[in-house]
Amino acid sequence: MKKTHLLVLIFIWTMSLGLISPIAQAREGCEKYSEGKEPSCEKKFFCKTDKILENKEELSLTDEQIKTIKDMRLSVKKEMIESKAKIDILAEEIQALLHETVIDEEKAFSLIDEKYEQKKNKTKLIIKSYIELKKLLNDEQMKKLKELYKQCKIAR
């Protein structure tokens, strides 16, 4: 009898894992607003492009719009990778400079300025791309996109 109970518990546990996994995957994605923090501009941009493309039929996107969105997404992704690499390199250079016995103050401040200039440019690129993405959709498509959000068909 105990063996049967154990088998039933193992079966129920295994089945619950099978149900939990799809639920967890459905919650993944753009950004979980329930975490209490606003997603970054970068995450918002990529989430928006993904969700627009996932709902291309409902939004009646043209082939040209689809291609433009895909091209824009790829271009921004490449720029973000390059920008992050530059920022990381500058951060490492700053750290290396701080480990020296005598720190070159002018060089340190120059590297800091360069790092934050890079971050500023990265953010501006994302905002500009986000604006371009919204301009790409016509009024009817924007209206439909808002309806999809309201119906919770698209996870923000």
From TrEMBL:
- InterPro entries, per this entry? LTXXQ
Do you know which Pfam families this protein is assigned to? LTXXQ (PF07813)
Entry keyword Signal: yes
Q: Which Gene3D superfamilies match?
A: 1.20.120.1490
UniProt signal peptide: 1-26
UniProt KW keywords: Signal
Q: What protein is this chain from?
A: Secreted protein
Which species is this record about? Candidatus Omnitrophus magneticus
